[in-house]
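Propose amino acids for all 202 sites.
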C-alpha cells in the first residue's frame, strides 16, 4: 500500500519558500524516501485558506516517519525554513486506497466525507463510477483514508487534479446529480464533511 503525507505550513516569504523547494527542497524529500512531492496552496478552504501543503507519497511508513526528523538535521533545510519564515501547523498521514488517472495539473480539490467502511472491491467500483464523470474535467482522482490526520482521521478523502477548476466543478456537479451516484451515497451513508480548493506552487 502507498501512503500520502501532508506537511501544512504558513510562510512569511512565499517566493523564497517556493524557489527553495524547486531548487533543492523537493529533492531532499525524495532522498528521504518520498516517491512524489507536490507543493500546493489552499486558496479556498475557510480558515485553512493560504496554508501551504507539502504533499508526499511514500511506499514505506518507516520512511515517512523518519523523514521529518532527518530533514530537520540538514543545515540547508534549516536555513531555508528560517529565511522563508516557515511555521509548521500540522502533519497528516493518509492511506492511498485507489487511483485513476494522474495527479497532474495546476489545480486540485480535496473533498473529505464520512461513510460506511468499504472493502477494496467496493472502493474501486465507486471510483470507477465517479471517474466516469470526473474524467471529463479532471486529470486524476485519488481515494484515500485518514490514518493519523486530526479531524480527517477515519474519513475518506478524494483528491482530484485538474487543469481547470471550471471544468472540474462542472464534472463534479454532473457526478453528484447522477441518480445512481445519489443512491449509492445514501446506501453507503456518505456525508460530505469538508472541501479545499488548492493551486500547485511547485
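Proposal:
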Amino acid at each position: 500500500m502507498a501512503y500520502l503525507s501532508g506537511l501544512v505550513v504558513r510562510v512569511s516569504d512565499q517566493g523564497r519558500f517556493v524557489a527553495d523547494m524547486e531548487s533543492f527542497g523537493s529533492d531532499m524529500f525524495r532522498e528521504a524516501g518520498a516517491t512524489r512531492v507536490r507543493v500546493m496552496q489552499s486558496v479556498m478552504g475557510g480558515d485553512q485558506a493560504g496554508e501551504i501543503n507539502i504533499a508526499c507519497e511514500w511506499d514505506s511508513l518507516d520512511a515517512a516517519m523518519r523523514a521529518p526528523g532527518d530533514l530537520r538535521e540538514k543545515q540547508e533545510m534549516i536555513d531555508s525554513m528560517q529565511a522563508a519564515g516557515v511555521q509548521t501547523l500540522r502533519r497528516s498521514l493518509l492511506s492511498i486506497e485507489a487511483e485513476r488517472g494522474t495527479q497532474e495539473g495546476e489545480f486540485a480539490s480535496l473533498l473529505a466525507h464520512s461513510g460506511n467502511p468499504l472493502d477494496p472491491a467496493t472502493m474501486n467500483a465507486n471510483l470507477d463510477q465517479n471517474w466516469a464523470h470526473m474524467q471529463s474535467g479532471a486529470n486524476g482522482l485519488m481515494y484515500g483514508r485518514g490514518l493519523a490526520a486530526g479531524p480527517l482521521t477515519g474519513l475518506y478523502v478524494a483528491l482530484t487534479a485538474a487543469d481547470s477548476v471550471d471544468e472540474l466543478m462542472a464534472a463534479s456537479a454532473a457526478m453528484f446529480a447522477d441518480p445512481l451516484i445519489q443512491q449509492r451515497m445514501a446506501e453507503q451513508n456518505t456525508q460530505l464533511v469538508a472541501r479545499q480548493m488548492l493551486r500547485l506552487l511547485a
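Strands lie at 2-10, 36-44, 52-58, 87-101, 107-114, 140-148, 156-162, 191-200. Residues 137 and 167 are 5 Å apart (CA to CA).
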